[in-house]
Write a structure and sequence with these properties.
The structure holds 2 protein chains of 2 kinds.
Chain A: H1 2-15, H2 20-27, H3 31-51, H4 57-64, E1 67-71, E2 74-75, E3 79-81, E4 87-88, H5 90-103, E5 109-113, H6 116-124, E6 130-131, H7 139-142, E7 149-151, E8 156-158, E9 160-165, E10 180-184, H8 188-200, E11 205-209, H9 212-220, E12 226-230, H10 231-239, E13 247-249, E14 257-259, E15 262-264, H11 268-287, H12 294-303, H13 308-313, H14 320-324, H15 330-338, H16 341-349
Helix pairs in contact in A: 1-3, 5-11, 5-15, 11-15
Chain B: H1 2-33, H2 64-97, H3 102-117, H4 120-132, E1 138-140, E2 144-147, E3 150-153, E4 156-158, H5 160-187, H6 190-198, H7 203-233, H8 245-256, H9 259-295
Helix pairs in contact in B: 2-3, 2-5, 2-7, 2-8, 3-5, 4-5, 5-7, 6-7, 7-9, 8-9
The chains are: A alpha/beta, B mainly alpha.
Chain lengths: 377, 296
């Protein structure tokens, strides 16, 4: 009986897309119903794609005037519900940058906290427009034969790392020779640890626990000289310690976990818009354009016709934004709202933030990192 | 009448066999469908992972089979030590509960009551994270050294993980054994107590020589179950970082992706171990009963 009612309602919603937002809003209080809806919408959207409906999700977002962004909500520094009840973090700022570019207002975002198993279904079923939830970009998630998503540029190069007490003076893998390292058992974490130390020929004693809480417990009690996990997890765990400043994460990376935002595959307009908003953040940092000086830079570009590439980037000349289906000055909107990539990073993960992670691979390519934007021409 | 019961038994037996065949067939079909067939070839490949402690020489270049053997020996080590210590603790506490000394009786009663109400996993976590990892560096003479990196008893180094698992299993199983011993002792007629007292034997001597031997037939079968429980409970060692068979299997399965083979090996190892324990106990039981019968 209930299923039939839901099915009927889903058909109604599907016939009238503008109703999706208010209806889904009402639903958040009823998780069971949401689950059923996701499943059914997924079914219906599967059928719809056969019919050849080719309107981009970007048009829907612009029409709605609001972005539905999927986040975790549980990872300090990436997406976390603050005491004031608003979401903050690097993943959240990516959502805000998208909203600034898509609808011209960074505050027009509705966040959906999602668990890891929920996230892809929520995206494919259309419950969210964009996923910005510390998701590792992998082949099977990208491929049509897999989860069928489109990934944007990497916004955080995560990877397995090692955390040590500052006073131990340990600074490199060699310093850990013969020492005990706390690790979660039965995960790729343990395997990466073995692979790295075996390749370097450094002996060590693994103390294996079954989950991260026990790893943290063993480490804090001084059983191990170091603990290992993904660097973002190490930093998040550390932000909960009584004395976080007494622990450091080593610069060595034991594995690669590139985290990137994603949209549904097969929608090039939406995927391109997402891709170039992230790239604009990186390009702005390369050019030294910040939240503080962006207006000044616009004036400078308008005044000096010789600054051709800056004029193009900021939308004074050319029509790069229009080609993406965005406003020509979308870069300016984005930087005004969130600042450039470096500013976002420093705000949430920088040395003065509670979750401090050395920038390492997330520095600009010109500084020896992996962040680089293709030309804005 | 007899024929009917025979038919019934044959029926039940064939039903069970059919069920077993169905399960095995299911497994085989599923394995074939996923393109996996049972394959134990990986056992000879180098494991590539280090272990925190090993009774025999081990390095990551040794085979998975050897890594699992080391894990099995680690399990065996903690189980064997646990059986001995839990028995001593249990018998002492059980005897104390039947003692005429009120203080001794209530201490033993408190121990049993407290330990039996708390899950073993929580107790292990307590022993490890609170008791052993909280140890400050304390040398007691030259023979005993305590620290949260390891304990050295008479020059024998023991890891804190081993000590935590051993203590947890001993204390937990000891409480159950105490109750079994008390039950067995209570089953001995009061007249036996009065008899040895009238002969002028002390309480301790009477308990050891007169009461406990007669209580054994009631104690042994229940004791066997506790021993088997201790062996099975040792798999909780992974929670406190002890490299037992289960922990090594866990890593092996993750690395090789051979979950079914890994679990089969685990299953067989524990089956063998427990058959060994219950076989040994059956032998002891028979000897004790035989002796008692002869002495009567």
């Amino acid at each position: 009986m209930e299923t039939r009612a839901v099915l009927q309602e889903v058909h109604e919603i599907w016939d009238n897309p503008s109703r999706i937002v208010p209806t889904l809003m009402l639903r958040t209080c009823n998780r069971l119903l949401v689950g059923a809806t996701i499943g059914l919408v997924a079914l219906v959207s599967g059928c719809a794609s056969i019919d050849g409906v080719s309107e981009s999700r970007l048009d829907l977002v612009k029409q709605r005037g609001e972005l539905l962004c999927g986040v975790s909500g549980k990872i300090p520094g990436f997406s976390f519900l603050s005491a004031e009840g608003s979401y903050t973090g690097l993943d959240v700022d990516i959502c805000r940058a998208m909203a600034a570019a898509f609808v011209g207002d960074a505050e027009k975002v509705q966040y959906r906290p999602l668990t890891a198993p929920e996230r892809f279904t929520a995206l494919r079923s259309g419950e969210i427009d964009l996923l910005s939830r510390n998701t590792t970009w992998t082949l099977s998630r990208d491929a049509t034969g897999g989860n069928g998503l489109s990934f944007g540029p990497v916004v955080f190069h995560d990877g397995q790392g090692l955390m040590v007490p500052k006073e131990s003076g340990i600074a490199s893998l060699e310093d850990l020779s013969g020492k005990a390292i706390c690790v979660g058992s039965g995960t790729t974490t343990e395997q990466n640890l073995n692979d790295t130390f075996a390749a370097e020929g450094i002996p060590y004693t693994p103390i294996k626990y079954q989950d991260l809480n026990q790893v943290v417990g063993g480490y804090l009690q001084g059983r191990c000289a170091a603990m290992t996990s993904d660097r973002s997890q190490l930093a998040s765990a550390r932000s909960g310690f009584a004395d976080p400043e007494k622990h450091v994460i080593l610069a060595d990376r034991l594995s690669k976990e590139p985290l990137a935002p994603a949209v549904v595959g097969g929608d090039q307009t939406m995927a391109d818009a997402m891709r170039w908003v992230v790239l604009a953040l990186i390009e702005a940092e390369e050019r030294g354009i910040t939240q503080a000086n962006v207006n000044e830079m616009v004036e400078q570009a308008q005044a000096d016709a010789g600054q051709t590439s800056l004029r193009r980037f900021l939308g004074v000349d050319g029509a790069l934004g229009s080609k993406l289906g965005l406003a020509d000055d979308f870069v300016v909107q984005v930087i005004r709202a969130t600042g450039n990539y470096g500013e976002i990073y420093d705000r949430h993960l920088g040395p003065s933030s509670p979750v401090s992670i050395p920038r390492g691979a997330n520095r600009l390519a010109e500084d020896g990192g992996l962040m680089i934007a293709p030309p804005f021409t | 009448m007899r024929r009917r019961s025979l038919l019934l038994q044959v029926g039940i037996a064939s039903l069970l066999l059919a069920l077993l065949a169905l399960l095995v067939n299911n497994l085989a079909v599923n394995l074939l469908r996923t393109g996996l067939g049972l394959d134990f070839g990986w056992l000879g490949r180098p494991s590539g992972f280090a272990l925190a402690e090993s009774a025999l020489p081990y390095s990551p270049s040794d085979s998975y089979l050897w890594a699992l053997t080391i894990g099995w020996l680690n399990s065996l080590k903690v189980i064997a030590a646990g059986l001995v210590l839990a028995t001593l603790l249990g018998v002492a506490a059980g005897a104390a509960r039947s003692s005429s000394n009120r203080l001794l009786r209530s201490v033993a009663g408190g121990y049993v009551a407290l330990i039996r109400q708390v899950p073993l996993l929580l107790q292990l976590l307590f022993w490890y994270f609170v008791a052993f990892l909280g140890l400050p560096e304390t040398p007691i003479g030259d023979l005993i050294r305590l620290s949260n990196q390891g304990i050295s008893l008479l020059g024998v180094p023991l890891s804190v993980e081993f000590c935590a698992v051993l203590t947890g299993l001993t204390v937990f199983t000891g409480a159950s054994i105490a109750e079994i011993v008390r039950g067995g002792v209570n089953a001995v007629p009061r007249g036996q107590w009065e008899a040895f007292r009238s002969l002028g034997l002390s309480e301790g001597l009477g308990l050891r020589r007169i009461v406990l031997p007669q209580a054994l037939p009631a104690i042994l079968p229940a004791l066997t179950s506790q021993y088997l429980n201790l062996a099975k409970n040792s798999t909780l060692a992974i929670a406190v970082g002890y490299a037992d068979l289960y922990a090594v299997s866990d890593t092996t399965i993750t690395q090789t992706g051979r979950a079914i083979e890994g679990f089969l090996l685990l299953l067989i190892s524990f089956l063998l171990l427990n058959l060994l324990i219950s076989g040994g106990m059956a032998g002891i039981n028979a000897t004790v009963l035989g002796r008692l019968r002869r002495s009567r």
